[in-house]
Here is the input.
Amino acid sequence: MTQKIHVLADESLGRVKREYVEVERKAEVGEKVLVFEHDHAYANGVKTVDRVEFNGHIYYGNYGRLPYGYYVLEPTDIVHIDENGNGGRYRLVDRKAEVGDYVIITNATATNSKYKKGDTVYAEEVNESGIFNKSVASSTSKCHNPNGYIDESEYAVLEPVESEQSPKNYDDIIANLVKRVAELERREEAQRRLNGVLSQRINAAQCDIETWAQEVEKTKREIKTKEERISDRVFPKIHTYSSEELNGKTLRILVGMDTADGVTAKMVSGIDEETGKIYVLNSEVNVNG
Here is the structure.
């Protein structure tokens, strides 16, 4: 089934006309939608979503609409460029430009007002990282660009889209297939490079986690050693006993506390007044924060 196409101004491309297709799904904030069959006539048509509820109910301006009353308009990679009044259709392609290509500015930086987002520029010369066009050259203290250089991060290449009705011979079909395969290979190589970078970052993060875990274990051992040292300093070696052993004894209660090396030890003990034997009634050791 052929999707219905809408040609709308794309603000992200300097209001260049772009083709959008209707999609039945929950909208997201900032997306364009086509609202239909609303009770208020002014609420119908192409709108921009301001807010979305969990069930897909959207809000735009002073109106709202449930999911069954709108289509999401998803942007395609096809734009309409009015070259010499012809209004041709072009595909946005993310690749390095070649001499003779036209590009569209998607991310204008350091332009010195020579070009802006949405402008089309002819690639007169190219290098490994961008294109050159003398019409955008400038030589000022603010922006020194005497050769008219535009970095590849600032543009997308425009490739003409042939009409579906136009006849194509065998050579044209093969040429288009070769071009598409080359584009897929470029994208695959870029993905491989990205995967390599991500793999390195994941490995580095794993090393950091292992180092952190070792530091935690080392800290735990140091704390245990401190606790044992404090316990030996504060508490004498005392044998265990049962509660029945205390029956009939008269104990003198003592409370002791000491702090050293960031550890506080507290002990409650009872001294048998007849034998002098010490019974630990309660003790605790805390590491100070």
Observations:
- Residues 235-287 form one domain.
- The chain has a mean pLDDT of 83.
